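Table S5 (text form). Sequence records supplied for joint modeling of the two-component complex.
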Amino acid sequence: MSELDSRIPNNVGLSHDRRLQRALLRWQPAFLDWWREMGPEGFQGDEVLLRTAVSVEPSGWSHFDFVRMPEYRWGIFLAPPEADRRIGFGDFAGEPVWRAVPGEFRTDLRRLIVTQGDTEPASVEQQRRLGRTAPSLYDLRNLFQVNVEEGRHLWAMVYLLHAHFGRDGREEADALLERTSGDVDRPRILQAFNEPCDDWLNFYMFTMFTDRDGKYQLMALAESAFDPLSRTTRFMLTEEAFHMSVGETGVGRIVQRTADLMAAGDDHPEENGAFDLGLLQRHINFWFAASLDLFGSEISSNAARYFASGLKGRAREKRRTDHAALDGVYRMLVADSGSLREREVPLRNAMNEVLRDDYIRDCERGVARWNRILDQAGIGERLRLPNRRFHRRIGVHADHRFDPDGNLIGEAEWEERRADWLPTEADRDVVRSRMVRVTEPGKMAHWIAAPRRGVHGRPLDYEYVRLS
Amino acid sequence: MADHDRRALMSAAPPPISFETRPGRYRHWRVEAEGPVASLTLAVDESGGLRPGYPLKLNSYDLGVDIELADAVERFRFEHPQVRCVVFRSALDRVFCSGANIFMLAGSSHGFKVNFCKFTNETRLGIEDASRHSGQRYLAALSGACAGGGYELALAADEILLIDDGASAISLPEAPLLGVLPGTGGLTRLVDKRRVRRDRADVFSTLAEGIRGRRALEWGLVDGLAPRSRFEEGVRERAAALAASAPGPPPEATGVALDDLEPEESADGVRYRHVELTFDRPARTATLLVHAPEDPFPQDADALSAVGASLWHLRMARELDDALCRLRFNEPQLGVVLLRVAGDPEAVAEADRRLFRLGKTWLARETRLRLARTLRRLDQTARSFFALAEAGERFTGTLAELLLAADRSYLCDDLDRPAGVALTEMNRGACPMGNGLSRLESRFLGDSERAAAFGPGVAFEAAEAEARGLATFAPDDLDWEDEIRVAVEERARFSPDAMTGMEASLRFAGPETLETKIFGRLSAWQNWIFQRPNAMGDRGALTTYGRPERHAFDWERT
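The corresponding structure-token record, covering 1026 residues in total, follows.
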């Protein structure tokens, strides 16, 4: 292994690719500067038990060891090529996939990659202060794992930009480090990534709901006719699964803690340092709606174009039968002159909604697991997802008010009920007041239950982060 | 022949058109070039159409007739520089010329019509160029009826003499009779060149039967009248007067024969002595590669005359011109043309310097003018031109005009041997565009200081050329291949129509001239009309012309 390959673990032949070397060696210092400045605040010198992707072998793709985050070896991995892979959908279905960017689609592909890439560093920036209030060393370590892997996903997108998009690609790669989450002048591209994520309840909700949008975007891109994009995103999905489990189990452990208290006869868990189910529901409402927005408009000519040209497909396209999607229609309920009416949209124009459907089903499975916790504790109350029309800011539902059941309501009712449905200032104060740092190995903050097991076979009271 | 047979014949893949000819092979024109007054007599061979399906009756013309005319006009300048006046005549009694053949037009594809009109416009601009720059005046001796394109040809002459026989009329019947425009500059020249009042031009252009005798003279549509009995005398007088008005021919102007280009043709391209045109049909691109001169440039005027048509600048210009015409007509699918150069850039610079040193001699001057016309043909070619220079290659002087004419340019910023641009005297207004400006002036419109700063001897390597605005992009050697592939692929996939309109709109910044008005206004409108049902639909006027059924218009105005 060359010195370069050990510094940047990869399976893209980096040590033989002069162009890529030059580009990445120029970009890497800027990335490290960004990481030091915008990465997790206050922990850059600490050793953290982190997994590092070192190959694409399913049996041993990762390696666990203590590492200081700035020394993390951010690698570049593409899922192994499929022999004779064919385009799976759209107007070019059945033709061989593209190993190089077709000139005709350069701009669209670059846009897709940049938009995806921009979310990766954005979430690191949003979460940079969370370490101060981690409820346990176990959670602190998971936060950093998510952060370094978002960093690696940035690398993955930057690799594509450098390897396939020439000078424009390099400029876009630089710009990924120049935008900053929440910055007035140069914000991140998608609005959900400009809101700070300063507490752990919001972090878990974010990884549960918003990272799951990322998963579905990656799944849609994994179908792409542009093979390097497909292979890159397929490998990213292996890491992304962990991020969602951090969110789902994180919220699950909060629910567990609340349920335990309630089962023990405590009708007001919020008065005992935990969170009540109403507050959790309001956060679910908020984060689910905000994450739905990330899929884009229900009726989209961009989505139709991306699908037609084979750039972005549907999740698990192989399981479907009609890969042209040219004749189908999608029926959706939209507000029209004061009531909800069914509207037929050409299927290709509804591809964002098709992907949103898959996402919603996936979220429902997670919520069902939380409800099982309540059920097992003998508690009758249930958590649920609001209707997809609730509190949307993008798309056909954005200009109307809906209750969490999806009923069209007036502005007055909205204002009256809003505090029941969405997190309030008081909620925020409650959440903030719970955030205290717990650093003793094996100990958990009061508002969250312990996880079932530790990381990679280590016990729960393991020192996952060696704080200096 | 029935219409559908005619159409079937013409829609079959036509054989490639050749643009080379010489007087010995003319079928439609007779040339007399003794002394200062020459004549060019239109005697169209009815059965001599370029393609079957339309007899060329009444001295009507098709592309083949105009290729011969363009050749004749060029040859007067190079082979007969002593000629001071060329008289357009007709071999037919009572008919001068009835314009472009309607059946040919009605049966041609849109692309062909557009290119046909473009070529004929360039020929007529070439006639005016000869008068303005080479002192070869043109007299249109209209001995009979002169309709449509026939009168537009006359409009390109310096003077029009009309026979006054009570019958022969001049006319522009396109709008009233065919539902199209007199698109070979007719409308523009009426008001812009002949200063015919616009209301009278309006009347004239809607009067199918045209205007005869005295009124034609009163309205300024012709310059003189002559009765049948005194027509020949009148022609002689006017021709002599025109010849006398022209500056005398340069004493050393003995003429050089324009030899045949005789390119090697193959399925993949056309190969000339200095120019190579190669096709990449799957990619829908073509490459136009121009080689630098290999022979030293002649030292003095005598040596220059001895070299004659073999002079690099002249030969290369003629080859490039031929290649562009072939691209336009024979390769309509090839949407992107890559302009490349090869050979020693110093040789180009040296050749340019010497051409300029001999600039006052007629052959050097004519050569430069020929080059300018060819580059204007490139400006008017509806293809996307990308100038590309790889490591070590340099667009120099005359060849730098190719880069400046291109829609975009890419110079490889190679670490060891960067590509580049070098300017010579040729880039300072020697080859004006149709708008009257040099390509540098058009490029840096309104910033004459900047344009002037790029004087002879200025040379830049890729990155510097990009920074100074001479090149669009300077990708480095690592990026080069992919960058070019993607840019060319992308360009080739845009709508060809959108690219044609976009390029034509971006290429000609700056002032309007007769030429820019003809191509940018008259031709653009004509090409729109050619697509409209009122001309080309089943009941369109051009379609139904000569048929029993009448046209039926959609009355809606835009």
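Note: The radius of gyration of chain A is 23 Å.
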